[in-house]
Amino acid sequence: MLRVEALETYYGASQALFGMALEVNAGEVVTLIGRNGMGKTTTVHSVMGITQPASGTIEFDGKDMTGQPSYAMAQAGLGLVPEGRQVFPNLTVTENLVATSANRTGRKDPWTLDSIFTFFPSLKERRSSMANLLSGGEQQMLAIGRALMTNPKLLILDEATEGLAPLIRQDIWNVLERLKHAGQSILVIDKNIVDLARIADRHYIVEKGAVVWSGDSKTLMADEALTERYLGV
Amino acid sequence: MSSRPNSIFSAPRWLIIGVVVMVLLAFAPPIIEALDQAFWLDVFTRMLILSIAAASLNLILGFGGMVSFGHAAFLGIGAYAVGIPAYYDEYSGFLHILLAVACAALYALITGAISLRTKGVHFIMITMAFGQMMFYGFVSLEEYGGDDGLIIYERSNFGDLIDMYDDTTFYYVCLVSLAVVLFIVHRLVNSRFGMVVKGSKSNERRMGALGFPTYRYRLTAYVISGAICGYAGALLGNFTEFISPEMMDWTRSGELIFMVVLGGTATIFGPVYGVLAFLVIEEILSAITTYWHLIFGLLLVLVVLFVQGGIAGLLRRWFSKKKEAV
Question: Looking at residue B62, what DSSP letter applies?
Answer without folding.
Answer: I
